[in-house]
């Protein structure tokens, strides 16, 4: 049975709810804080708080072309205004403040605690500081870089934002320290499963560096090659460590209870919920509350990205036949499609044990996501299925993409090491340079396709479109759904159809993306009012 990290809050951490202008102000008035920081237990309890900031299951994919909810949202329809406050800003600075506090105060335990142990929990704190800053710069670009706790008079509270290059440099320094000082996945073992390992730090560095490497390349700024090399090197270090591998069970089970725990070497970072309703940290109702109720439905665009088993897209493969019934959509396809999408015959819920077809009153696209679908969880509305936040599969596609973007090519050997391992899992023919040339395929596009289908429903697509600078092309397109199988969908709900009988969920006129401003999010207005040295992002 896996170990659950206990999220213990102590006195000095209870300031997490302070407004953003207060997140770095830690008055030294608490007796408990003065007498704390004496032992390994103190350091571990303090570090446990940082894990509460790991992201839960979400519906972020509705911002992209992979999914849509019951209604439009102000990101995909372009109606956003600069907010007064933004939890994405405040929460990440709360995390950074807590991490800075540990980095500063952990050395107090030196009288009774080995330096290696102090370094370990300092490394966890520096990992989470890097996590917070990546979340900030990914959204907002330049932000204040604060590396210590501040008092009320600290000049940093009124300083301008730091350039993103400086922030990424600090992120790399923090992650390199974490990679050097944290235990391996094997050393953590079952007892400490769920804590950040050295390979987690490396894998996250690969994610961060790929984002900035490709973003700077396609947005034409900075040093793309530097970041892309960092991404490739970090990903290769994870691969060479032999600490991780792909899950040996079914792809679908990755997102069920069988995919949890130390025995699943594919999980690099997870948000733990628990092992049962009686042994849990917290629960979620992601399946019933988000998927079954239509708050996130897959699109035709995502469905069409799944290859036929011969390795060709549906527009090129002789295996593809126009569907007559709904199950035809899955015939001779990458099996990860039927693991990610509900199809007729799949277990669904107690009141409807077997899935028939997505009810259009909720699932507007006529599709429904299947990842995390679990009948028992539908009954309890209190799932303990963990969220895999960073998987070894992501490391593999990151390595492939970083190599290709850095060199303009990738060898067949490296394709076998990365992309083809994932295609094999989906029952899809191998990708080689010769195969791509013979069939008029672009290797870069095929690597991006592999990333899209492997990581579908996991919150990556919107950010990928931003870094590739393709959001301005892809996001304003109409949202289409499944082929309208009249005999199966019935006529209870009226729907708009295209001329070729696909469900038209949202017309292009309702989809907006302004390339002059939407590649960065607006800074919260209140933060600019508190610190006039902060400048609003262009166009906001």
List keywords for this structure.
540 residues, mainly alpha, Serine Threonine Protein Phosphatase 5, Tetratricopeptide repeat, two-stranded antiparallel sheet, 21 helices, 4% strand
Structure description:
- The protein is mainly α and 540 residues long.
- The protein has a domain at 286-506: Serine Threonine Protein Phosphatase 5, Tetratricopeptide repeat, CATH 1.25.40.390.
- It has helices spanning 31-34, 40-50, 87-105, 115-140, 164-181, 185-188, 198-219, 224-241, 286-292, 300-304, 335-340, 375-380, 392-407, 412-417, 419-425, 433-438, 443-454, 461-468, 471-474, 486-489, 525-530; strands spanning 67-68, 267-271, 297-298, 387-391, 479-483, 502-506.
- A two-stranded antiparallel sheet has the order 1-3. A two-stranded antiparallel ribbon has the order 2-4.
- Helix 5 packs antiparallel against helix 7 (198-219).
- It is globular.
- It starts with 30 loop residues before the first helix and ends in a 10-residue tail after the last helix.
């Amino acid at each position: 049975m896996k170990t659950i990290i206990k999220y213990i809050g102590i006195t000095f951490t209870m300031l997490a709810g302070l407004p953003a202008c207060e997140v770095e102000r830690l008055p030294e008035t608490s007796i408990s804080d003065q007498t704390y920081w004496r032992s390994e237990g103190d350091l571990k309890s303090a570090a446990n708080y940082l894990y509460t900031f790991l992201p839960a299951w979400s519906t972020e994919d509705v911002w992209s072309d992979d999914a849509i909810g019951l209604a439009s949202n102000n990101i995909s329809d372009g109606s956003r205004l600069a907010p007064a406050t933004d939890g994405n800003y405040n929460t990440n600075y709360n995390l950074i403040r807590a991490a800075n506090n540990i980095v500063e105060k952990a050395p107090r335990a030196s009288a009774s605690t080995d330096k290696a142990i102090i370094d370990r929990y300092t490394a966890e704190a520096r990992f989470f500081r890097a996590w917070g800053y990546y979340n900030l710069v990914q959204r907002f670009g330049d932000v204040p870089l604060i590396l210590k706790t501040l008092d009320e008079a600290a000049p940093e509270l009124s300083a301008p934002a730091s350039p993103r290059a400086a922030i990424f440099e600090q992120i790399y320094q923090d992650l390199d320290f974490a990679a050097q000082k944290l235990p391996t996945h094997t050393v953590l073992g079952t007892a400490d499963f769920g804590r950040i390992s050295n390979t987690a730090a490396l894998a996250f560095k690969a994610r961060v560096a790929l984002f900035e490497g490709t973003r700077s390349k396609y947005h034409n700024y900075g040093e793309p090659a530097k970041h892309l090399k960092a991404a490739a090197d970090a990903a290769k270090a994870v691969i060479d460590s032999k600490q991780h591998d792909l899950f040996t069970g079914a792809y679908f089970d990755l997102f069920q209870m069988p995919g949890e725990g130390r025995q699943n070497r594919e999980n690099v970072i997870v948000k733990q919920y628990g092992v049962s309703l009686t042994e849990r940290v917290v629960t979620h109702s992601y399946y019933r509350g988000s998927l079954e109720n239509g708050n996130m439905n897959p699109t035709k665009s995502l469905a069409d990205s799944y290859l036929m088993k011969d390795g060709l897209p549906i527009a090129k493969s002789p295996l593809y036949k126009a569907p007559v019934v709904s199950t035809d959509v899955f015939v001779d396809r990458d099996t990860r499609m039927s693991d990610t999408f509900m199809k007729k015959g799949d277990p669904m819920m107690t009141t409807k044990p077997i899935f028939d077809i997505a009810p259009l009153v909720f699932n507007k696209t006529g599709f429904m996501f299947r990842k995390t679908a679990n009948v028992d969880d539908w009954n309890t509305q209190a799932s303990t299925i963990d969220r895999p936040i960073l998987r070894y599969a992501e490391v593999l596609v990151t390595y492939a993409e970083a190599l290709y973007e850095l060199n303009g090519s990738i060898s067949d050997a490296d394709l076998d090491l990365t992309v083809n391992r994932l295609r094999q899992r989906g029952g899809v023919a191998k990708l080689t340079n010769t195969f791509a040339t013979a069939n008029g395929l672009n290797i870069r596009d095929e690597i991006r396709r592999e990333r899209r289908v492997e990581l579908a429903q996991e919150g990556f697509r919107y950010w990928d479109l931003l870094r590739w600078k393709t959001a301005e092309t892809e996001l304003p397109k109409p949202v289409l759904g499944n082929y309208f199988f009249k005999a199966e969908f019935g006529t209870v709900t009226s729907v708009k159809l295209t001329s070729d009988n696909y469900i038209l969920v949202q017309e292009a006129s309702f989809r907006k993306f302004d390339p002059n401003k939407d590649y960065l999010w607006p800074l919260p207005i209140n933060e600019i009012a508190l610190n006039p040295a902060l400048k609003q992002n262009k166009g906001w």
